[in-house]
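Before going further, learn to read the protein records used in this course. The integers have meaning only within a learned vocabulary of local backbone shapes. The record below shows the convention in full.
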Amino acid sequence: RKSKAKHLLFHQHIVMRSVVARSARLVHPCRARLFSSKTVARGVSAGASGTTKPDVVNLDRQSPDAVAAEMRACFSVVQRMGRGAVYLGSARVPEDHPHFGEARALARDVAATYDVTTWSGLGAGMMEAVTQGGMDAGKPVAGFMILLEAGGGEQQASRKHPYLPDTNYHTASFFSARKHGLVDAGVRVKETDRTVFVALPGGVGTLDEIFEVLALMQLRRLGSSYDVPFIIMNYDGCFDGLLQFLEKDMVAYGALREHELKPHWKACATNEHAMAYLAEFYAKN
């Protein structure tokens, strides 16, 4: 019986080695093509012939020098326009959506109450809503455009904003530089500075920015001399699933401690709740 079991294990081992070797021969040429030193494919799928779709981005670019130059340009805009309220949100929300009006009203009230510049990615949707809100308050509006927004899938026709002065913004080619600029616009250098990060409903790009700010706060790498409030605008429960995932699921999994993120952000269902939280925060900080 032992001899038979030993023979069976040996047979399984030989079969497994054969499968792995055959898989390696099939996969290796495809991997070499997709991940060469010259190109990387976005959303690439390999067909039966092993060829790839032509959606390939050339990595032979000038970075890191180009990225560093863009970061300096973004920092210059912040120095020129002044720090303030930084809004993160979807480019796809139409102007007739109720949340567009809510975001516009919130940006207006924050700018008027705290006399601050309104910052965003200066795109469409929620970004346009807060731009209009800051202008409604008669306060400065600034930001960082990007040549490609997820909503349209096409490069913008112009590097110029349709109505803001050129001094109020920088149009970036690199998302990393854009995010550095947005973070810098929200830090507090002096105790009297009144800044805030506000997450409005959005998709992958918005979540990327949310987690950028959250991780920097969690790891104490935001670069701010004083605490900065971070508000999640949970209009109609838009962020319920995300909050459940982080506060329940990841705690149960062991990736986060219970209440670990509580000091770093505040979920607010209404503009009134957000304004009350800001007043409370700055009464203590």
